[in-house]
């Protein structure tokens, strides 16, 4: 199944999705089914298969899962642009059977504004993901930014509110989400058309995590990207000094103040090299 989780910023979308991933990472039955299928393939001519993971969670952000009497479990890293069937253009991931795939900020990868460029090898992969027993979870602020082909295959969860509980030391030790579940895209469209007022479109539910989900992931895991291209330079730190009210001061301001459009800022979309 494909599930789209949506809500405004800072309302617990990714945190909720991480809780689901935590549950899947310790789902013994699912993990056993995955392992049995992989070992069956190994015994039947798939000689290059060497990996039999302990769990089935993959994501485009890093997660680590903890549970009493279990060693830590780490999510598998994926690039959502590389989810799809084998093709002549892009090297794609070889997904595990029964894999649970979690994609945060999904509109970046499945942008509805780029629907005319949505590759067939990826569209068909989403359409047929159930044939490999995959489950896919997407989070976004606005579901309409997700490609319509994906929305039509999805169920939806709207995060209405998030509450915290605290231990005696003032640390978070539990979370509770109040959510609305919408079973399919037709009900979602009806729900949105009603201004989210049509109560026949959804069921309400409460989901509880009795641990601090924020310990499972780094909400700033993309920080290294801000240093890319700058490892051999210092910060370009220009101090805002008062402008001298003279001709020389004005000329210096016009020379040193960088607030114009840089050359090369706008680029025509070209063919991607992957």
Structural commentary:
The chain is an alpha/beta fold. The protein contains six helices and ten strands. The chain has helices at 13-25, 28-42, 120-127, 148-151, 185-193, 247-256, and strands spanning 2-6, 57-59, 64-65, 73-74, 76-77, 100-103, 135-140, 154-166, 172-182, 203-209. The strands form two sheets. Strands 5-2-6-7-1-8-9-10 form an eight-stranded mixed beta sheet. Strand 3 and strand 4 (73-74) form a beta hairpin. The longest helix is centred in the first third of the chain and has 15 residues, at 28-42. The radius of gyration is 23 Å and the shape is globular. The chain starts with a strand and ends in an 18-residue tail after the last helix.
CATH fold-level name of the largest domain? Rossmann fold
What class do helices, strands and sheet pairing give?
alpha/beta
Give me the oligomer status.
Answer: single chain
Tell how many strands the DSSP assignment holds: 10
Which residues form runs of ≥5 with pLDDT under 50?
A: none
With strands numbered from the N-terminus, the spatial order across the biggest sheet is 5-2-6-7-1-8-9-10
Distance between the termini: 28 Å
| Beta-strand content estimate | 15-25%
CATH homologous superfamily label of the largest domain: P-loop containing nucleotide triphosphate hydrolases
Question: How many helix segments?
Answer: 6
What would the principal axes of the Cα set say about the shape?
Answer: globular
Query: What is the helical fraction, as a range of percent?
Result: 10-25%
Radius of gyration: 23 Å
**Can you tell me the CATH class of the largest domain?**
Alpha Beta
- Encode the helix/strand succession as letters: EHHEEEEEHEHEEHEH
Mean pLDDT: 92
Just name the CATH architecture of the largest domain.
Answer: 3-Layer(aba) Sandwich
Largest sheet features: 8 strands, mixed
Structurally, the number of domains stands at: 2
């Amino acid at each position: 199944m494909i599930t789209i989780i949506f809500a405004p910023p800072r309302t617990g979308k990714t945190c909720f999705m991480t809780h689901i991933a935590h549950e899947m990472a310790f789902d013994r039955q699912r993990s056993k089914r995955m392992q049995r299928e992989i070992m069956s393939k190994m015994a039947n001519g798939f000689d290059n298969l060497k990996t039999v993971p302990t769990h089935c969670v993959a994501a485009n952000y890093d997660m680590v899962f903890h549970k009493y009497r279990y060693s830590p479990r780490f999510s598998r890293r994926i690039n959502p642009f590389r989810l799809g069937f084998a093709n002549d253009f892009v090297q794609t991931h070889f997904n595990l059977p029964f894999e649970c795939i979690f994609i945060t900020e999904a509109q970046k990868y499945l942008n509805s504004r780029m629907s005319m460029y949505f590759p067939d090898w990826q569209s068909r992969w989403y359409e047929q993901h159930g044939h490999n027993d995959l489950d896919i979870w997407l989070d976004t602020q606005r579901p309409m930014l997700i490609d319509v082909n994906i929305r039509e295959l999805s169920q939806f969860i709207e995060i209405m509110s998030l509450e915290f509980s605290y231990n005696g030391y003032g640390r978070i030790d539990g979370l509770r989400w109040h959510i609305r579940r919408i079973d399919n895209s037709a009900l979602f469209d009806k729900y949105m058309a009603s201004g989210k007022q049509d109560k026949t479109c959804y069921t309400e539910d409460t989901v509880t995590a009795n641990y601090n989900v924020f310990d499972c992931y780094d909400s700033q895991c993309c920080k290294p990207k801000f240093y890319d291209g700058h490892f051999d330079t210092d910060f370009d730190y220009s101090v805002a000094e008062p402008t001298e009210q003279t001709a020389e001061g004005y000329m210096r301001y016009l020379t040193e103040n960088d607030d114009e459009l840089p050359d090369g800022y706008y680029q025509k979309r070209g063919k991607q090299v992957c």
